[in-house]
Amino acid sequence: METSLLLFLLLAPFAGFLFNVFFGKKVSRNVSGTIGTIAVAISFGIALNFFFQINSTKKPILIELFHWMTLGNFNVGFSFLLDQLSILWLLFVTGIGTLIHIYSISYMHDDENLHKFFAYLNLFIFFMITLVTGSNLLIMFIGWEGVGLCSYLLIGFWYKNQEYNDAAKKAFIMNRIGDLGFLIGIFTLGYLFSSVDFTTIKTAVASGQTVDLGWLGFGTFCLFIGASGKSAQIPLYTWLPDAMAGPTPVSALIHAATMVTAGIFMITRLNFLFDLTPNIQMIIAVIGAITSLVAAFIALVQNDIKKVLAYSTVSQLGLMFLALGLGAYEIAVFHVITHAFFKACLFLGSGSVIHAMHGEQDMRKMGGLRKYMKVTYITFLIATLAISGIPIFAGFFSKDEILMVAFHENKALWVIASLASIMTAFYMFRLLYLTFFKEFRGTDEQRHHLHESPSLITFPLIVLAILSTVGGFISFPGHSWLNEYLKPIFIRAREEHHVDTTTFMLMGVAVVGALIGIGIAYSNYIKKSQVPGADNEITGFSKVLYNKFYVDEIYMAVIVRPIYAIASFSKNFIETALSGFIFGLGKVTNMVGTQGRVLQNGSVGFYLFVFVIGTASIIAYLFLAQ
Q: Do 525 and 578 share a structural domain?
């Protein structure tokens, strides 16, 4: 029974993919979208069933479909593990995935390749399910590479635009860099433990098996490189903002629920290994904190509504890695969950705005939309309050716990994370005020067509806004259902901080910081009615931030162009050498042929003479050899 349910869980989205690939063009748009949505909804229902079962029995479910490979004492099964961690990921991947599919039925209705879009979405969900349910690193790697492929297909979905194709290629290549590190990490763990199975490695660590900590540190660092690529950490983060090239539902799927959370999932899954390498943990924490701050700085001045949300995602992911590096894995998971709620709501809300504005994404050309789009505005406001860390919304609880752990473990990292959080509140309310408040700044034609989005778009927004409000209650400081639920995942249970005076002081500081950020945004964009100037009017440090610290330009100058130059030199050298060798062979052959034609003169007497000379030479050689 469990095996059958697992197969349904995995194969329902894959069946939706196959249906839309082979029959999507032959059926109506609504049928194509409905089939794709039902496929993911089936997986969500099965995930709920497994959640209740595991929550009741407290026992993980291991299902081996078949034995995959044996190399000496190295064995790998094609098997899947359903436990507390994988079930949590399944719930929000398939649950939010279902809402995004519903949203896409309306949002993408007029696209000529609607069936292809739903096929790619279904395939994305299939690979994400594979990633989080695999019982070993090789199965995880299949899903890991699969979501990378699907991100390439979806980011470059509107392939007639070359910039979108470039963004897709950039995401694919930068993820390949991280994936190489991940693959080396897998090989290293296979060498150290003669296994890549999670349960086997965890048992070995728990039993005190001696392991070379130098090689283990190398392995976990390589795994972190893989996580940095998927979850957009410095220096492999620049692909994620460019991923905005894809349709807005793709942005919501990648940024909120699926691909970018893969790195956090993998590190949390292997928490028992990272606990043995504290130096690598500190690197993770520092990189996470710096990423959070840098991305927050960049988001301060962006004017594209989706770009602001994209850099916000990078910043929030940095906070999650900060928690991972400090050993607070369950808090990182908590923020993953709440972030999935409010970030999906924000991206889908931005899509609703873009839909009403006929494709316009520049906030300088918006304004006053709350009068025309009340549902979108209210849901967007709730999600903005959540990400800004305002009580009682979901983001307040998860972000506050990260800051609390950072305060107790490393004051410098706490300061960095707190600054990033204050900036988050500022740039998110800057976005809200520029988009929904004051007077409309677009064209008269755009004003004439302003309207609330259809119910298929607003329904997911309402559900996500509710989750953004109540989602934080799964983990109260000092009394957390989530922490208790995740305990079997960890070997070393982290001592939970008790609610005391320090806890309330830190909460107060975080809330005051958020209110300061909101207050500055209100002063600038409501009281002073400021509107960002044209691109050519941006100067000073704002220009540096607007151009994202020129990181892309630096990468282009330091890495890309030298590689192009080396490739061009190699191509020309190889072509020259190869063509010279081949043409040289031709010339030698031609010379031999020319001399051969001299000998082949048609004289029978000459031929007989050569024959006699040759025969005499052979006889003489044989005589002398005796």
A: no
Verify that 344 and 447 share a domain, yes or no: yes
Asked whether residue 268 is assigned to any structural domain, the reply reads no
- Identity of residue 242: D
Is 525 a member of any domain?
A: yes
CA–CA separation, 415 vs 311, rounded Å?
20
Cα separation of 287 and 281, whole Å? 10
Q: Does 126 map to a domain?
A: no
Q: Confidence class of residue 626 from pLDDT cuts 50, 70 and 90? A: low
Rounded distance between C-alpha atoms, residue 344 and residue 66, angstroms: 37
Quote the pTM value: 0.90
Please spell the DSSP secondary structure of 81-139, one letter per residue. EESHHHHHHHHHHHHHHHHHHHHHHHHTTT-TTHHHHHHHHHHHHHHHHHHHHBSBHHH
16, pLDDT greater than 80 = yes
Which residues make beta-bridge pairs with 71? 74
The answer on pLDDT for 415 being more than 80 is yes
Give how far Cα 504 sits from Cα of 344, 422, 476, 509, Å.
Answer: 29, 18, 13, 9
Of 60, 116, 48, give the one whose Cα is nearest residue 88.
Answer: 48
In-domain check, residue 504: yes
Q: Which of 481, 508, 534 is the last residue of a domain?
A: 534
pLDDT given at position 2: 83
Same structural domain, 599 and 479: no
> What integer pLDDT is reported at residue 186 of this predicted model?
95
- Print the domain residue range for 497: 279-534
